[in-house]
Amino acid sequence: MVKFLVDENIGQSTIHYLKEQGYDVVVATVTELSGREDSFLLDYAFRGNRVIVTNDKDFGYLVYRQNLPTREVILFRFFQESPSLKIAALDLILSKGTAQILNHFIVASEDKIRSRSIHIP
How many Å apart are CA 48 and CA 66, to the nearest integer? Predict the structure, then answer.
């Protein structure tokens, strides 16, 4: 089963949704991860086989420019920070199965969901 690391900027509704669906969820704000650098979160998620869920586009820079190892990232790029949009996007992403999530960097916006493979060193 997919495990998640939810970044500090996501919101409670999305966290509750994932937990209600039965997923193993670590929330950065309520653990020792609170306030840690994004590179630390990437490493934590990589070692723990967790998908990072975030609004922070710096993760793209860390993965594709600095080549920091990660397994999966779901990045929300919505103009309106609506919990219902995030939950609908997650529902769609998760409905496609783990093969479409694992080893992918996924960007969800109002009009589309893009997915790009991640090369794991």
Answer: 20
> 2: which 2 tokens?
């997919």
Residues forming beta bridges with residue 108, ordered by sequence position: 76, 113
73 forms bridges with which residues in the sheet? 52, 105
* pLDDT score of 121: 63
User: How does DSSP assign 20-42, residue by residue?
Assistant: HTT-EEEEGGGSTTTT--HHHHH
The bridge status of strand 72-76 relative to strand 50-54 is parallel
How confident is the model over 51-80, as pLDDT tens digits?
Answer: 999 999 999 899 988 888 888 999 999 998
Delimit the domains of the chain by residue range: 1-27+39-69
Instruction: Find the helix or strand (DSSP H, E) in which 60 lies.
Output: helix 58-64
Over residues 21-31, the pLDDT tens digits come to: 999 999 998 77
* Tokens 């920091």, residue located: 68
Q: State CA 37 to chain mean position distance.
A: 15
In this model, does residue 2 exceed pLDDT 70? yes
